[in-house]
């Protein structure tokens, strides 16, 4: 029975990682029991004894961190190192330095309003935040953080009191205070020096120095000035697909790519593009031309003539002349006044064609929104992420507009996504203080012009049309199997992702049933969230319908 209970406990708490037993909350049925046939008695299980809250430092890791560095075994150091991988600032160090830090770290937990670092004191430790938030203030007691509506906050994964300050024993320039119950991993100066961590730090600093020394931008600088650049920089690692910056254009820092590469993406609002507006309505008309879909509401000949008369000749009356021409046009097609037809501009006389509105889609039963170019179905107001540029090793991000006046700068938000990279990030203000005339001249020639949103929208529509044509052509050329091969039965896993989640289907605008798959929304600055799509399923005629002579599969058109 204890084995079963412990198994339930491990499954519920995921192996005791990042959980801590807290006070018992109120539950409707906290206790349940069942009859044991072997013991002929009732066994009671109280769930309140196993209530836990996630996010806390694991108990086993706390026991290791409370030991002296010399008492920790290699296996315990590796366990602590694996546990600390959730801290982004710790993960930025090399593996050898991570193991050394795991050997000397100690665990601390402080409550709200506790001052961790006081302004003006000598630095003796630096901290990694595992849980909670801290505020950085200019006063000594940190009270201004609780009065400021928007204080400067540091969250889980950040670090402060940098390791470089331990080597120089510099004075603290700010106060750090806890905003809530916070857990830290602390590295003290005595342990830092005793275990020779400064040697590993010097190795990392030398790698950064060699990287800056090889760049053409800093060839004219002395070694002392390059070392100032090394001190200002902070090295960070990002895995594949990890977000580096949501908007690096308006960011207060610049990024140097040390290893790997990353992509520059742009979230474009397709509904704001005239090309997309025209493209959507062209394909919606194709939907309504089909017999199974919603039909157009054909205005009567009298209504069409009245519209023409009001727009063309608001005073004079040419009804007899116009009706005579209309009647001749219908007689050529073998129609009469009592029959509803789909007239087009080419079927009418040339004098009447351009000004007569033969048909308009009045029967779209879906909510509309107003755009700059006209009404658009609300479901068609979507966005897409477009790749603009790939940044390779040795390139710099955030300097292409640093010398331009504010009126000439392109302030569109651009996203920086990692493809597996290591970067050096530093504040733009500090970097500008080191710039001399030669570097400024090189930066004036360093310009990158990104395409406009309209060009990217047209590119997205072209790629989407090509993907549609490619799928249709494959279905036409490849003959389907008459008897599908045997496939084993596989149970579908319940997942969040669905291919239809990132596809906009124009044929489902009038459907009242809600989609059973999730829809991904992207936040926008000062605007409502925008649905994100990767493709648009547009209605089209089959190739066999357009070209009846190619009805058989396997024929190349």
UniProtKB/TrEMBL annotation:
Record keywords, A-Z: cAMP, cAMP-binding, Cytoplasm, Nucleotide-binding
Transmembrane segments: none
Keyword Mitochondrion carried by entry: no
Cited InterPro entries: cNMP-bd_dom, cNMP-bd_dom_sf, RmlC-like_jellyroll
Superkingdom of origin organism: Eukaryota
Molecular-function annotations in GO: cAMP binding
One Gene Ontology biological process: spermatogenesis
Cross-referenced SUPFAM superfamilies: cAMP-binding domain-like
Record-level GO cellular component terms: cytosol
Pfam families assigned to the protein according to its UniProt record, in alphabetical order: cNMP_binding
Ranges where the Cyclic nucleotide-binding domain occurs: 89-192
Any coiled-coil regions, as ranges: none
SMART domains: cNMP (SM00100)
Localization, UniProt: Cytoplasm, Cytosol
Function recorded in the entry: Essential for male fertility. Plays an important role in spermatogenesis and regulates sperm motility by controlling the development of the flagellar bending of sperm.
Protein known as: Cyclic nucleotide-binding domain-containing protein 2
Source organism of the structure: Pteropus vampyrus
